[in-house]
Amino acid sequence: MVEETRSTKPKFLRALSGEPVWPPPLWLMRQAGRYLPEYRAIRSQAASFLDFCYDPKSTVEATLQPIRRFGFDAAILFSDILVIPDALGQHVSFESGEGPRLTPISDEAGVTRLRETINLDRLYPVFETVSRLKQDLPKDTPLIGFCGAPWTVASYMIAGRGTPDQAPARLFAYRHPALFQRIIDRLVVASIDYLKRQIEAGVDAIQIFDTWAGVLPTGEFDRWCVSPIAAIVAGVKARYPAIPIIVFARGAGPRLLELKDATDADALGIDTSVDPDWAATLPKTTVLQGNLDPLALIAGGEALEEAVTRILAAFRHRPHIFNLGHGILPETPIAHVERLVELVRRDQPF
Questions:
Q1: 289 belongs to a structural domain
Q2: Which of 3, 25, 30, 5 is closest to 287 using CA atoms?
Q3: 83-141 pLDDT, tens per residue?
Q4: Is 293 part of the annotated catalytic residue set?
Q5: Residues spanned by the domain of 296
Q6: Catalytic residue chosen out of the listed positions 39, 156, 255, 266
Q7: What pTM value is reported for the model?
């Protein structure tokens, strides 16, 4: 049995460094959000979601809320992946009940209208939020910064909104590969600059979200998912080699091995579709994060307990960070999250 040690390093960072920790550290993607009544209360006071994201007082409070309520082992900066296209000069807004809306990019003129470099002054409120959080978070609670991966961000920039299979971006990439490469390259550089500033402001780790990686066929997966993420990781670590980086490529499945081999990422997030028993066969030098089904968390009861037990048993003797296989859903009962925390933190051998 792996026992807790007297290390003063937070267990989340210990796991990210490759140390098996028991019970495993726990945090949840989208842990600050609409399932919390206290979040809904402060969100209702902002004119728009983008205004909310650029208000440090609000984003600090949103980030702290789940830490106060559940005592998670890490906090994640409250923001959105689409602040990058906003800071590149593309019009971004969020329609209530409908999600993000951007001015679609359909041709070279649309690409030309983008800034050559990211406007970091536009993102100053994000960095201020990080600085404030480092003062307000418990000393043993690391702060995770993040960005969206170029493929996922570009898919919104092309379509102007979320789509079920990202067909607009996939078609654009097939028809205009050189132009699409320009968008990806610009997003790589912008993401590196953005993440470096988050690190300078105080984040303790980084996660790169490629939410739509799974829609890419094999050849395109390497070009539009693996290569850009590898470039971001390399660019960040060239300046900050000690910063831990988690890569979450939803839907990648076994291709996660390709992603791991091509990057210097410290951990891989695994989504709901990945079999924990298969993932447990990966080299123990690979830190894993995930992968409870958010619907099992909504269901609660026996379904939740069985799913948690299986994940804990699969990863019992390796470095693992307990998380969901995707973001927590708005209809999730708070009592079920409380029960999840109890289940993960029980010291029960399997």
A1: yes
A2: 25
A3: 999 999 999 999 777 789 999 999 999 999 999 999 999 999 999 999 999 999 999 99
A4: no
A5: 13-345
A6: 156
A7: 0.96
